[in-house]
Backbone:
C-alpha cells in the first residue's frame, strides 16, 4: 500500500505551509479546469449551490487526468477535492457527509457549527465505527460502511481505503480533512470549548459573510468589529493548534493573513478578457 | 434601488386582494408556460415531487421572458415563484429552505408545522442573521450567507438583495413569503399559540389532503368535520391577521372561499382536448 | 403472437375514421399526461424541438401506464407515439429514422419531402432489408438491424417485431406509419409522381407554416392561395388513396376538414386557468 | 379493486418462503435489466449511491415491461422495487421515506436504527395519518399526502392506493415493507425492546459491513464474534416473528442461512466474460 | 416592433468597428458568466464539443439577465450568441442550422465550406422560404417553419421574428449572421467564386488550425505559408466587402490584425490564479 | 513522447492475436465496469442506442481508473474504447466520426459501407488534413481540427496527439482503428474493390443481423447461405490482409471462428443470478 500522503491540503499543512484552495461549483468543466490549477485543493461548494451528489460524482471523475496520474505513477491527486455540505451543524445531519465521502472527496466542511455537540456529530459522521475501547474511539464513528466507489476513486483497495479514511490530525495518517465553519458570535464564544473537547477537527474556516451579517456589518470584512471577531477565532485556533482558514484571500490581504497565522487560504480564480479592451482601443472606440 | 414590490403574491395581498396561485412541477417546460399564466405566483411542489434543487434552478431560469422584462422595464417577475420543501416542520430542517432561496425563489412553504418551536425554526431558516438587539431580531436568522445566484436572479445587486430578502409582513418591505402547512389536529390546536408567538409567518396554507386523512375522511373536502376543522384554521388566522390559503380552489367553491376570507387561492390549470370529441362526433364515431 | 392492430392511428384509419393526434414536445411529463389523452396518437416533434433521442427513449417509457396495460391485457398502446425528425427530405438522411424507430416509435414523419428520390429514401430508411426478389421489396430497406429496445417497448419478441415492423399500408399488417411533409410548391408539383412511384407512404401531412411562407402569406391559413394549394394536395392524395393530414385542426375548421377528406387531424391541447378570472372578478378586481 | 398481493417480497414471505433480492444502483439500464431477473424484489441502494429521487423515478419507469404486464393482466410487478435511504435512524428524518414512496417504491429500508424512538419514527414516516382512535393507529403516520405519482405507478386509483399503502404485516393487506438496518452493538442491545414496542417493522436487515467494523473485524463476516452478533439478531427476530435478512448471500452460505432462519436473502448478480478466456487460450496466448 | 438592432455583432460591424467574440462551450455556467463579459457576441462551439441542442437551449436561457434586460428596456442581448455546427459544408446538411436557430441563436457558422454549392446550401438552410420572384429570393430558403421558441427567446412576436430572421447584410435589417469557415486550400481557391456568387454570407472565419494542418505546418500560425494563405483570404474578402474573422486574437497580434482588416476578432478569456503564487512566495515555499 | 502502443485492440492484432471486444451501451456505470473487464477494447454502440455525444464524453471519463493508470505508469488504456456511429456509409456523413473522435475514442465503425466512395469518405472523415503531396495523403483527411479534449483524454500533448491520431495500419504508428460494417450483398460484391482501392481500413466487421435479413434468413447465423456469404467476406479480407471481425462470438463458435481467421471477436458479457435458483431449491420451492 502506498505510503504517500494523498490529501494535498494535508500535505501542505504537514509541511508547515499554508494550503491554497478555492471554492468550486459542482460542475464538470470547472472541475476539469481546476485539475490543472496550482491549488493544493478545492472545495466543492454545495451549501449555496445545489447539493447534487450525482453531479459531484461526475465532477470528481472529470478531475482524473490520465497524463498527470501516469507521469506521477501515484494515486495522490494533483488537486485534492473536498466538499462543503448544506446542513448547518445544528441540524445534526449525518447523511450528507456520508454521501459526499462515498463519492470520493477527501474531506467535508460543515456550515454553522456552534456547539460541542454539533462539532462532535460533524466529526462522527465522517468516521467509520470502531470497537469500543479502540484507540481514537472518540468521536464515535457513525459513517455507514459502503466504500466501493470512494476506494476506487482514491485508487486503493478497500482495506487500504479503510486504513486511510479517518480524520486528520487525530489519526496521523488519516486522509480526511473535517472542517467546521465558525461564523456566528455563539460559535466564537464556544470555540475554545469545542476545540478542547472534540478531537478530529482539522480546520476551522471563518465564514466572513455570515459573521459580518451577524455583527451588523454585512460583507465589510475590514470593519474593526469583524476583524476583531476574526482575530478571536485565530487566537483560539492557535491555542489548540488547529488550522484556521480564510475564505477571501486576495492580493491585498495575503501577506497579512499569512502573518496572522491563517493556514488555509481560499482565493477565487479570476477570468479576464484583456484583449477586448485593448482591441477596442486600437479600433478607436 | 427599485422601490417596486417584487413579489407579486405579496403585491396582491397588500392591495387587499386574494392572491391566485397553483402548484407546479419542477420542470422547465411547465415553468416557461406558467410565466405567461394569469397567476400571481406559483408554488414549485417539491414535497411530493423530487426535491431537485438543480432542476429548480433551471426551471427558474426558464421563467425569464425577455419580452416581458423589457416591456415592463422592471425586475418584478410577472408570475412569482416560491417553493414547497419536503421536510416536515418536526424535522427541524434548515438546509432545504436555504437551498431553494439561494436558487432565487421568493418564498418557502414547509409541510406539517405543528408547534411554536417548529414554526420558529421555519421562519429562522429563511432569514439572514442580524446583530443582537437589532430591530426584528426574532426569529433569529440562520440562513447561511451566499446570495450571488439569488441576487442575480432577482435582478438586484447583493446589497439590494440583502435589503429585500426578509420575511413579509414582519419586515414590511420584505419580499419573502414564508408559509406553513396546517394539516393536522395538533397543528390546529397549536395554531393560536404559533401565530401569537412566532412573527414572520406570511401564510397558513391548509393541507386538505393530510387533514382529511387525519380526520378519517380522506379527500372528502366537503365533509362537515373537515370543513369545521378548516373553519377553525380560518378563524385563528383572521384573529392574528395572517393570510390563510386553500389548495383546491375551483369553480364551485371559489365564491365561498373568498367570502370566508381565504386570501391565497390555489387552482390547478386544466388541459382540454375538446376538438377531438367534436371531431369524432362529426366523423360519425 | 398477438393479431391485434398495435398502431392506434392505423387502427382508426383502417376503420375508415379520421385519426386524431397532436404534436408533443419530447418531454417526460408531457408524454405521461398524453398517455391518458383521447388522441389516437401523438407526434413527438423533433424538427423544431431538440432532436434528442435519449430524451425520446425516456418519454416513451413514461407513456407506459401499468393500469391501462393490465386492464386491456394487450400490448397495443392507448395512445400511439410516432416522431417527426429534423432532416429535410433533400438531405437524404437515414440515421434519424433508424434512431427514433429503434427507441420504439410506431412511425416517422420527414419534413420537406419534394421528389420521388427523397420519398423513396424516406420509406427505405424505415424498412429492414429483404432478399432480392422478395415480395414488397421496394423501396429497398436500409434500416440497420438492432431491434432489441423497440421490440421490448412494443411488448413483442424479436421475431414478432420483425413481422410487424414494416410500413403500412404497403405491408397490410405493418405497424409503422411513414409520413412526408408536403410543404412547398415543388413538393406539390411532384406529389402525383411521388405517390405514383413510391409505395409505402402512409401519410401526407401538409406543412401549412412552410407552405404559406413559400406562397408569400406566412401563417395565413385561410388565404385563397394557401387554401388552393392545400386543396391540390388533398386531391392528389385522394387520387392515390393516401391519407392526408392537417396540422392545425380547430373548432372552426374541423367540420370542413373532415368534409374535405382530411383523415389525420392534429389539434393542440389547450390549457386554461378559468377559475383565476372568475376569482378575480368575485374579488372585485 | 385487485385483491392480488402486489409486493412480491411480501408474497414470498407470506408463502413461508425466503424472499430473494439484491441491491441495485439507481440507474435506468440496471433497473430495466433487473425487471427480467429472477428476484422477488430489488433494493435501490441510495445510502452509498447518490440519493437522487428524480433518477429513482426514471429507474422505476424503466421497470415497466409492457409484455409482462399485458401477459399477466395484473398490476403486480414482476420484480418489486424498494429503496434504502441514506439518513441514519438517529437523524429522525422523515422526508426521505416520503420522497421515495411518492415515486412508487413498495418499501423503505433505513440505516442504523438503534432505538425504539428511531424505529418508531421510521415506521411513522412511511404511514399516512389516521384519526385518533383508529385501528392500527400506532406508530402514528406522518407521511404527507400526495399519492398521485405512486398510485399511477402501482396501477391503482387513489382510494385503492390508500387502502394498500400501509405497512405489512401490521396491516395484513399492506403492501409496504419497512425495514431497519441492524448494524451496531447498540442496535443489537436494543433490538428486543424495539421489536416489542414498535409494530410495523417488516424486516430487520443485518448490516454486516458496519457491524463487523464496529466489532473490530472489518468485512470478516465469518469471524466468530461477527457470527455470534448476527446470531443474536436472528434469535431476537425469531422471538418476535420478524423477518431477518442477510445482505451477502452466496453459494457457500445460502444453505446455512436458510437453515438458520434468514428469510430475506440478498445476492448480487455476477457478470462474466467467459468466452474471452476461452478464446485467448484457443488463440495460444 | 422594435427598430433596435438586436444582433450586437452586426451592430458593431455596421458601426464600422471590429466585433469581439470568443468560443464558448455549450454550458450553463459558462454561458451565464459570458453574459456579463465585454464581448459583442459569443460562438457556442458545437463542432468539437458535443452537438447537444437541448443543452444549447439551456445555455441560452442562462444568458438572460433580468437586471440587464430591465435596465435597458430592450430585447437586444448584451452579448449575442451564435453557434458553430459540426457538419462540414460538403455534407450538405440543413437540419443542424435549423435546430440551433430554432433554439434562438442569432447566427450560424459552418465548418469547411469549400465550394459555391456548399456555401449556397449553408445560406439557404438559415433562411425561410419566400415566394418565387420575391426580393432577395436567392439563396432559396429551406429552413423549416417553427419559430415559437426562437421568437420567445428574442422577445418578439412571431411576425416580428419573421421580419428579422433573415441573413445580414443581404437583408439589411436581418439579424442572422451566417458565417463560413475558410480552412483549406480548396476553399481559398474557390473563395472569390463563392463570394461572387452566393449572397448572404456575413462572415468568413479563417480556420487557422485546419488550414495550417493542410499546409503542413500544424498550429504554426506565424509560418510564412500560413500567413500568406491567410492574407489571400483577407484580400478576397475585402474585394467583396465581406467581414473576415480571426479565431486566435491575442495581445501580440491584435494591432496587426485590426490593421490588416480583420473585423471579427475572437479571443479566449483567460483564468488566473495569481494570489496563489504570491502567497506561496510569501510563505517561503 | 511515449512510444507505447496505446490502442489495445491494435496491440493485440499487431501481436498476431485476435482482439476480444464487446458492444457497450453509452452509459457511465457500464463503462466503468468494463474498464476492469478482460477485453482488449469495447465498442460504444451508438447506431441503435442514442447517438449522444455528451453521454459518450461522460462514459469515457468513467473509464479512467486512477489505480490502473498509476500502477502502469502508462497512458495506454486498460480497455480501449471505440465507437459505432449511426449514419450509414451511403449518407456520406462526416460530423459523427469527428464528434466521437473529438471526445477521445480510439476508433470508429461505420454501418452499411457498400462502395469505394463510401469507404473513402469513412476513412477521410477520421483523418486530419495533410499538405498535398505528403506521404499517406490518401484518403484525404477532412476531420476538423480541434484536438484539445481528445488529447487530454489520451494523456498526450497536442503535438503528440497529432502524431498518433491517424489510421492504422495505413499509418503504422497510428492509434485509430477505422472499421466498416460489411452487411449487405452489395457490400460483399464491392468488398474486393473497396479493399483494393481504399487504404486505411483497419477492420471489416460483419453485420450478421443485417446480412441475414438481406438474405432472407433473419438472425439464422448458421444458415448455409449466411455462412457462405460470411466466408466470402473472410476470404476477401484475407486476400487484402485486413482484419475481419465477428459480432456474435460464443462458446460454441469461438474455436471455429479463430480457425477461420476472424481476428476481431465480439462477445457479450453475461449476467447470472445463480444463487437465487440454488436458494429457491434449498427452500423447497
Residues:
Amino acid at each position: 500500500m502506498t505510503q504517500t500522503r494523498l490529501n494535498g491540503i494535508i500535505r501542505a499543512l504537514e509541511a508547515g505551509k499554508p494550503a491554497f484552495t478555492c471554492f468550486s461549483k459542482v460542475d464538470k468543466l470547472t472541475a476539469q479546469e481546476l485539475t490543472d490549477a496550482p491549488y493544493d485543493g478545492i472545495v466543492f461548494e454545495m451549501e449555496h449551490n445545489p447539493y447534487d451528489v450525482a453531479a459531484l460524482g461526475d465532477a470528481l471523475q472529470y478531475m482524473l487526468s490520465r497524463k498527470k496520474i501516469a507521469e506521477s505513477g501515484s494515486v495522490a491527486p494533483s488537486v485534492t477535492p473536498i466538499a462543503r455540505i448544506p446542513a448547518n451543524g445544528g441540524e445534526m445531519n449525518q447523511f450528507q457527509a456520508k454521501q459526499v465521502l462515498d463519492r470520493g472527496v477527501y474531506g467535508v466542511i460543515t456550515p454553522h457549527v456552534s456547539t460541542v455537540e454539533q462539532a462532535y456529530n460533524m466529526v462522527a459522521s465522517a468516521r467509520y465505527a470502531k470497537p469500543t475501547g479502540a484507540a481514537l474511539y472518540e468521536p464515535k464513528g457513525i459513517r455507514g460502511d459502503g466504500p466501493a466507489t470512494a476506494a476506487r476513486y482514491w485508487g486503493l483497495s478497500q482495506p487500504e481505503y479503510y486504513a486511510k479514511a479517518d480524520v486528520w490530525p487525530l489519526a496521523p495518517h488519516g486522509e480526511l480533512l473535517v472542517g467546521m465553519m465558525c461564523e456566528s458570535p455563539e460559535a466564537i464564544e464556544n470555540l475554545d470549548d469545542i476545540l478542547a473537547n472534540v478531537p478530529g477537527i482539522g480546520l476551522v474556516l471563518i465564514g466572513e459573510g455570515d459573521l459580518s451579517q451577524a455583527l451588523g456589518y454585512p460583507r465589510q470584512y475590514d470593519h474593526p468589529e469583524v476583524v476583531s471577531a476574526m482575530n478571536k477565532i485565530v487566537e483560539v485556533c492557535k491555542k489548540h493548534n488547529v488550522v484556521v482558514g480564510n475564505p477571501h484571500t486576495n492580493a491585498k490581504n495575503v501577506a497579512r493573513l499569512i502573518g496572522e497565522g491563517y493556514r488555509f487560504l481560499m482565493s477565487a480564480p479570476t477570468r479576464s478578457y484583456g484583449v477586448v479592451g485593448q482591441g477596442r482601443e486600437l479600433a478607436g472606440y
